[in-house]
Write a structure and sequence with these properties.
homodimer; mainly alpha; Arc Repressor Mutant, subunit A; 2 domains; 3-stranded antiparallel sheet; 9 helices; globular; DNA-binding
DNA sequence: TCGCGCGTTTTGTGATCACAATCCCCCCAT
DNA sequence: ATGGGGGGATTGTGATCACAAAACGCGCGA
């Protein structure tokens, strides 16, 4: 394999270095439940898939492992994490702690345009629920939350929540199967109503409930 | 440089791979304020210092950068982060959100032995304050908090708080200079009192105050 | 004296290689 | 049929190299 000029496969504007492309791609897969808990990955396999050598593959994997998105055995073997019930509960508690705060910080800046955008995303969520598409549902559901939290202007806090999502990613799809589809949308509607009303306590509660609801099912 | 047998410089039991040693060492320095904001590092420099090649140095640096402990410019230049006031405020808010929760979770498990250990650590904190040793103070102060939070049995939450500490590390020492030394200890004593009394609301408040107090000074 | 090019040096990136540890699978003995 | 052992294949680790881009410094010109 030869060092190609930097413009080889890049489509639009600066896509970033090789290891970043690999990182983003893997991260997205993991966060959206496209990788099963316990599934194994290899550096050479990743490298081959993305057309790069082991070096950027290794950096991506190490970074994801540092963020808890992947597990490395003592011998260095790479797998998607299979979370214990305790760990899931803890991560759920983190979401319940952080996300209402982010929502509350976003509230004063939530104009009508944002609420409309959220409604549109929520419509797409409904489609995926109807189509029983777990990955699509996870993706749009997280997009709903992220779109709201982006308004909080709190990048470090958002990054932290996304790390939690990442850790929960592989487990999420399994979780989706058990979830009661009908009241999925109810919580999002409560969030939208509280946003429109400018009611912070209601918003905090709605977000906390939405976050907690789905995750507590796994433990039960 | 030659690949040495794995048992080369290892003292006790498995110290971990080369990049992990480098990572732990750098992380400790950063978290305890031994690196100034804006200070530059180089992969070859790190490698030379630890007697390893660029590869493990690079992995350590990338990992630390992913955790926000180091900044990488678009050209890949490595520096310790120089935080904006907004960012500091946000990280302080994260501490104020997470640490009371960890303390509250530790409370039911906080036996007398733990409180005694905390008192002992607190005494060492006082020594460093008296000696005007900023790094020593930072180290023992964080040890005080970590010892308490370890009892919460919440590894993911603790990891998250430590990431916040890490990001604040380089800025912390500058902060220390402005801090009113006399009421530093007051808050720790309040924490100990609330722990001994088993009073959760008081504990949450004491932790939140301790955390907030020092950090709000930078913004002012 | 100050600013600005240009060449040298430094620095990060990615590929490749040697190596040791581990895993996997197949075969054989019981 | 089943369990254990052994050998080949796979895998992560770290060193080294080539390369391009950025940084630095030095000297020349205004």
């Amino acid at each position: 394999m030869v060092t190609l000029p930097r413009t080889a496969g890049e489509i639009g504007s600066a896509t970033g270095s090789a290891h970043e492309q690999v990182y983003r791609s893997l991260r997205s897969r993991i966060m959206h439940g496209e990788i099963d808990p316990g599934e194994a990955l290899t550096l050479r396999g990743i490298g081959k898939e993305f057309g790069v050598s082991m070096t950027p593959a290794r950096e991506s994997v190490r970074r994801l492992a540092a963020e808890g998105a992947l597990t490395m055995s003592s011998s260095g073997r790479i797998t998607a994490p299979d979370l214990s019930a305790d760990r899931i509960e803890e991560l759920a508690a983190l979401r319940a702690l952080l996300e209402p705060e982010l929502a509350a910080r976003a509230l004063p800046r939530a104009h009508l345009a944002l609420i409309d955008r959220l409604r549109a995303i929520n419509a797409r969520v409904s489609e995926f629920v109807a189509k029983q598409d777990a990955v699509g549902y996870l993706r749009t559901n997280l997009e709903f939350h992220r779109t709201l939290y982006l308004r909080a202007q709190a990048p470090a806090m958002l990054a932290m929540v996304e790390t939690v999502w990442l850790q929960l990613g592989p487990t999420m799809r399994a979780l989706y199967a058990r979830r009661n589809r009908t009241d999925l949308q109810k919580h999002h509607r409560m969030i939208l109503a509280a946003l429109a009303a400018g009611d912070e306590p209601a918003l905090r509660l709605a977000v906390r409930t939405d976050v907690t609801q789905g995750l507590k099912m796994l433990v039960a």
